[in-house]
Amino acid sequence: MPCKDSGNLSVTIKHLKGGKESKMDLLVMENLLFGRNITRLYDLKGSSRSRYNADSSSNKVLLDQNLIEAMPTSPIFVGNKAKRLLERAVWNDTSFLAGIDVMDYSLLVGVDEEKHELVLGIIDFMRQYTWDKHLETWVKSSGILGGPKNAAPTVVSPMQYKKRFRKAMSAYFIVIPEQWMPAIINPNPSSNICEDDSQNALPE
């Protein structure tokens, strides 16, 4: 489910004034939304911290809290088989990403109401849990710089990120009720569907 990587490029730009050069490393990725009439677009991480876009107008990328807020009136429904396939794909992909120390990725979800389809793909999967991220986790947990001891770091480990991501993605997509299925109650916007980074990190 991770978006296909079409190429990695190094681009050098020479400024006309002064001749100064600047270099950028670019990653060219598949456009999941090409040829689609997307009416809603979400960037989902499974976190509630700074995950709300107050500007929900057309063509804006919405975040986790926007989806939770819309659930009582405009949930994202999927069939039972599709839900199982989605959970399996998320499980396998997050296992792979955690295995190579990657975190902070997102699930991009486009709602194509014209075709009654969802377009999904994992994006932003280039950030590794390097030594500086380890240091931040240790410093904030120890409180040696004066902050509260055992405070949750703003960056969590790949294992913790994987668990949080799986839990949230499972809750975000509501199964369409089928015959003989028990009643399903849509989540309340105030319910704790996604983790708040200010809470204690999950145990590994």
From TrEMBL:
Q: Which positions are tagged coiled coil?
A: none
Kindly list the GO molecular function terms attached to this UniProt entry. Answer: 1-phosphatidylinositol-3-phosphate 5-kinase activity; ATP binding
Alphabetized UniProt keyword annotations: ATP-binding, Kinase, Nucleotide-binding, Transferase
**Pfam families, alphabetized:** PIP5K
Q: Which InterPro entries match?
A: PIKfyve_PIPKc (IPR044769), PInositol-4-P-4/5-kinase_C_sf (IPR027483), PInositol-4-P-4/5-kinase_core (IPR002498)
Extract the PANTHER family matched here: 1-PHOSPHATIDYLINOSITOL 3-PHOSPHATE 5-KINASE-RELATED (PTHR45748:SF7)
Give an example GO cellular component term for this record. endosome membrane
Q: Which organism is it from?
A: Triticum turgidum subsp. durum (Durum wheat)
Q: Which residues form the PIPK domain?
A: 1-173
Q: What is this protein called?
A: PIPK domain-containing protein
Could you tell me which Gene3D superfamilies the record lists for this protein?
Answer: 2-Layer Sandwich
Q: Which SMART domains match?
A: PIPKc (SM00330)
Tell me the organism's taxonomic lineage: Eukaryota, Viridiplantae, Streptophyta, Embryophyta, Tracheophyta
Return one Gene Ontology term, BP aspect.
phosphatidylinositol phosphate biosynthetic process
